Amino acid sequence: MAKFIESWVYEGIEGKPWAEVKARVLEFKAALLEKGAPEVNVREGSFGAGMGTFTLEAVFPSAAAWGAFADSFDDDAAWEAKMSAWQANPKLMGKSGSIFTEVK
Fold it and tell me: What does the pLDDT read at residue 37?
């Protein structure tokens, strides 16, 4: 069965130290794993003189597994509290995201 991958691209907010940005990306990875994502990959890249760009990919064995994961966020007070805390001290700016199906 093909894997189903949700991917996000983030950049650090200008003026934030790279170490703080990377730490927040890794916090996000840990939070997604804690929430039940079976696999989360992080990649770092950079274009020109810009601060590093990070991608996070949550990998699921099927679209149904991704759907169950997505549904788990409905009315989740703990997740909302975590997001509120992160928004109060932002380090990342979301640039884009996408859903992929692995092709073999």
Answer: 93
Contact 3, 59 (CB under 8 A): yes
CA–CA distances in Å: residue 56 to residues 14, 72, 96: 20, 19, 11
* Residue at 94: amino acid letter: G
CA 72, distance to chain mean position in Å, is 16
- For each successive 10 residues of the chain (104 residues), what is the average pLDDT? 88 88 92 93 79 88 90 88 88 89 83
Residue 9, domain extent: 4-16+26-101
C-alpha to C-alpha distance for 59 and 5, rounded to whole angstroms = 5
Q: What is the predicted pLDDT for the residue at 47?
A: 67
Which residue matches tokens 């640039």? 95
Distance in angstroms (rounded) separating the CA atoms of residues 98 and 96 = 7
Give the count of domains, the chain. 1
The single-letter code of the amino acid at 32 is L
Residue 36, amino acid: G
pTM (2 d.p.): 0.84
